[in-house]
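User: Continuing from earlier, I have the next pair ready.

Assistant: Great, send them over.

User: Here they are, in order.

Assistant: Folding the first of the pair now:
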Amino acid sequence: MRTFHRVALALVLLLGVGLIVFPLADGLPKKTQGVDNVQDSFRDAMSKEGLKTSREDLVTMQLMLKQLKAETLPQLGSRIGMNPEQTYAFLSARYDKVGAGLNQVDTIMPRFDHLVAVMEEQGPNFRKADEIPDAHLPNTAVTYLFLVPGVLLTVVGAAGLFFSFRGGRTAVPTVALSVALAVGVLMVGGTLATDEIGKTQAAEKMFDAFRPTFSEQGYKQARTDMDILEGMATQMQQQVVPDLAKIAGKSPEEYSAGLSSDFKDVGKGLVELPRILTRFDGMVEDIGKNIGSFKDADSIPTASKPVSQVPYYLLIPGIVLILVPGAALLFGRRSGNEGTASAPVSAAPQTSSV
């Protein structure tokens, strides 16, 4: 039975060393910091309220651009004797950024619509993954879910083996096995109670969905699209509206008020566009700043293995710690009981008769 105890203690020691080596060799501290960086940057945008605002802002832009192209510009052009084609040609020649925007909005806006749609779809997964390992702890705490049990198991496993080979009657090996069993219960119970399996599955879905977005190519495309929209909006407000107001013999404020009255979607868009573009620009820049962090997060546990495997790196050792030390303690106790029961009772000394 002592051999079984030693085998169990050796396994405890090896599991402890493995739990220490895995997160450090795999670069888990850096990777989990990448997760925190991404979550901190997009937590507001991926909240229910943030997603609602993004959708409303996108709709405002879409309606403004639709009315601008279908109604506003053709009517403004007709007032000075131009058909729609001539109006677009005139604007493109005189206002290069407005012309570039009008020519490309039909391809730019679907890309932003797709981005917002992916954000809306992945909002629940983002919020669930944001609670790894717990709603009150950062993702970097995941490293310590391996290190703390690993150090404890290494210490008790080594101590148990040392005193087991040292000989003599000592309770240290039994205590070491009991501690290992308790650690195993905590590892399994904690992983299941906090739903780490479900949370990492949500994170995996989110990584799959956003992988094209958090790439150099994805960022460059979004940055180019934003530059076109911002250039168009700025030139419209600083040059086109003042010039049209001058032609109409009105102040820019009076002319803008007239536009808002005649073309409500355009008027609303012109008022809200600076805020909307600033907000979307911030999201695009956050994407660019977090490309490296996203790659780190997406490589947990490795670049070729999904993050949904990570809970099993705690569950499987935990189950082993419950079964093997538990069996060693159970059979050790039975062996001790049997030994006590089978011990011979010495006969009482007989007095010889004189």
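And the other member of the pair:
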Amino acid sequence: MGKPDEYFPFELDHDPAVFGLVRAHRDGPFGRLHYLHSPDPSGGTVTVFLHGVANDWTTWTPILRVARKRGDDLGELLLVDLPGFGASENTKDHLDMGQVGDLVLDVAAELGYRSVRLAGHSMGGFLALDMAGRNPGVVTSVHLVAGAYFSVIRTVQNPWTSLVRRPRVAAAYFSQSALATLGPAGLRGMALLRRARLLPLTLRGFLAYPWRANRTFLDRLTVGMRPRSFLLAAQNGADYRPEVRWRRIRCPLVAVFGVKDKLVPVADMVDLRRVCEHAETHLLDSCAHFPHVEMPERTYAFLFGGTAR
């Protein structure tokens, strides 16, 4: 199948005012946290968007553009730069997922919200699932994009076994780990590839059609690399048991996967349905690891088509 016409239709937006959002900061256990929210919160439920590694809040702007284009109301919004990513700090030597989830819920509660629905991509999806398992009375629904991390968790726990059983996942994970281990040298290499317009060479399996990625996505990916934060985030998988923790989830759960995703493969969708039998899952042929950016209209329809308010 060739590249669909609707592939990568939107640039990423960097101005929160475009979506009627305001910036805010607060001090927390990891340092200064940056987030954006709807002004004059009215309480009730807020939709919280959680980004993945090497991203920040802007990765969700194509989904927000689709909602505006359709005239849908997603309700009040909260978009968080997770600790160590985007404009948020991480002054600690760890990135404990339980603490991060509690921090996000604290921000929502401080704004006056009594409950949250969670939208998470990749690492943010992993976080959303963990939050839903820990906080059944607060999380009303979960909306995932490439966010069921079974294969990544297994790779972290058994790297050599994964090289044999899940070579594509292992290769994708270890390529990120190698880049993170290089630290500043790796970042300089990424910046050099971006200036030479060769960065898409590194994105096969993360994007279905890497050479069709637009400027703002590639720019944001380059500046969003946080080697230390990636390594700290990966430590959460060392002793994590998704089969136990995610089986506690009872709220509605919808998940979108990309057929060409080498980091979160179709096998993870099967595992999610096994552990969370009520999960509604969707597979997009012309997407890899970033369906919400690659094909935001179709992704939005699956994630929120029947739940916009």
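Worth noting for the second one:
The first helix runs from residue 61 to 70. The two ends are 35 Å apart (CA to CA).
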